[in-house]
Design a protein that fits this description.
Helix content: 55-70%
Strand content: under 5%
Largest sheet: 2 strands, antiparallel
Structural class: mainly alpha
Distance between the termini: 32 Å
Number of domains: 1
Number of helices: 10
Order of helices and strands: HHHHHHEEHHHH
Number of strands: 2
């Protein structure tokens, strides 16, 4: 493990921790607004990562670090408690609560994209010749600008990944609840009851399989939005 690998790992983990905390905090806040204070009482309506780490130590610390060592990028998970009876009474509110997490990720992605465009405008950053998960923008000068380029690249890509993956309509991902916004209340309740019948592992397997098929296209689409006319793909 050379110093560059360790420094990059620190950047990845800071971005992962912040992005995941925003994701779960958005769930918790939306639930509180919708009438379920469960996560609020658990301390999850916060940008402090500690309540989320305490709830999911393996998903927030162990797996992200191991995945970076093995694959050179990070994956992990967290969770937000909610009252199932509240979801039964208000399935649409619960669906908006589910959408809040990916919305937070896409908001962070947009902020990163705007910062990248500002950096290019002021000639501190430049589009790379070939983009990767860690480098979708590069610095025009070494030093702090280089760290900023790496941070913004990881912030953009990781939040694109988290937002896209969580929107897939398979339990236990957010998309399996959010999709009920397209259903009547009665059908939504039947669907939610059906997805609680132990489909978590199968849902994650299907989501990961499908994600591997579509994310490259999503990534290229996002790059072409970030750099219009660049012809990525």
């Amino acid at each position: 493990m050379n110093p560059e690998f360790l420094l990059l790992g620190v950047i990845w983990y800071i971005v992962f921790l912040f992005s995941t905390t925003c994701h779960e905090g958005a769930h918790a806040l939306a639930a509180k607004i919708g009438g379920d204070p469960t996560a609020f009482h658990g301390g999850q309506v916060s940008l402090n990562p500690l309540p989320h780490i305490q709830r999911e130590l393996i998903g927030m610390v162990v797996v992200p670090i191991l995945s970076y060592i093995v694959a050179h990028w990070m994956i992990g998970w967290a969770s937000t408690p909610y009252d199932p009876s509240w979801q039964q009474r208000y399935p649409r509110r619960a669906a908006w609560m589910a959408l809040a997490g990916p919305a937070a990720n896409f908001s962070l992605m947009i902020v990163a994209g705007l910062a990248i465009r500002a950096g290019i405008f002021f000639r501190l950053l430049a589009p790379p010749s070939s983009a990767s998960f860690t480098h979708i923008v590069e610095a025009t000068t070494p030093g702090i600008a280089g760290l900023a380029a790496t941070f913004l690249s990881v912030l953009f890509v990781l939040n694109l990944l988290l937002g896209t993956f969580n929107l897939l309509p398979f339990p236990p991902l957010d998309g399996s609840n959010a999709i009920t916004l397209l259903m009547t209340d009665g059908l939504a309740l039947k669907f939610l009851n059906f997805t609680r019948q132990g489909f978590g592992i199968l849902g994650l397997f299907l989501a990961w399989y499908l994600f591997g098929k579509v994310f490259d296209r999503v990534f290229v689409f996002a790059l072409n939005l970030l750099y219009p006319g660049s012809g990525y793909g």
